[in-house]
Amino acid sequence: MICLSACAGQYRPVNTELPLAENFTLGAINLYGWDTFNTFFAGTSYSNQIDTNTDFRLSGQYSHQRSVGDELIGEFNTWVAAAQAALGWRGGIVRLAGSRTGDGAFIRAPWDGKPSCLSLQRSDFDSAGERAVMLGLSYNTEYFSALGLSSFLNIAHGWDRRLAFEGTDLPDRTEYNLTVDYKPPDGPLRGLWIRLRWAHLDIDGDGATSRDIRLIINYQLSLL
User: Fold this and answer.
1) Which of 47, 72, 80, 149 is most buried, by CB atoms within 10 Å?
2) Is residue 14 within 8 Å of 48, Cβ to Cβ?
3) The model scores a pTM over 0.70
C-alpha cells in the first residue's frame, strides 16, 4: 500500500484581520492498493469570524475511486462529492451538508474510516447513485464546558441509492445520531473521556429499523 499526501495551509482560530490565506485550507491524499483499487481524496475549507459571537465555515470534499491492476475485487469506477456549511453563534453550531455518489459503485474503505462529513454511526451515505443531506446541531455553552460536557445531534437522509452491479434500486434511509461526551476538566479524573452514542436507522419500504447504543471509555495515562 502506498500513501501519498500533500497539504497546504493550516487551520487555526481566525479573526477578520487575518488575510484570506490564513482562513483557507486545502489537502489531498492518494491511496493505492495493488491489484485492488486506487482512491484519491481532496478537501478544502474556508472559515471566518463575523463578530465576537458568530463565525462560519464552508467546506468541500471530493473522492474518486477505481479498480486497478488485476482488479481482484471487481472492475468499478466511482466518485463522491460533498459540501458543508457551518454557522456558530454563542456556543451553538448549525451544520448543513449534502453529497452525491457516482452511479458506478459504492465507496469502499476496508483499511480505514471515511473522511466524509456524511459518515454517521451506522451509515456512510455513499451507495451507488445516492444523494444525501444532513442537518447537524450542537449547543455547548461555557457552563457545560466547565462541567466537561459536550454533545451533538446529526440527522441525515439518503435517496436514489442502488446496487450498481445488479441494477437494483435500494430503499431510502434516514439516520439519527446523538453523541454526549464527558471529559472532566480537572481533578483526579482528568484524562478520562466517556462517550455515549445513540443511533436510529430507519429504512423505507419494509419498515426495517435498527438501533445502536455505544458506551466508549478512554483514559489517558501520563507515563513521563
Assistant:
1) 80
2) yes
3) yes
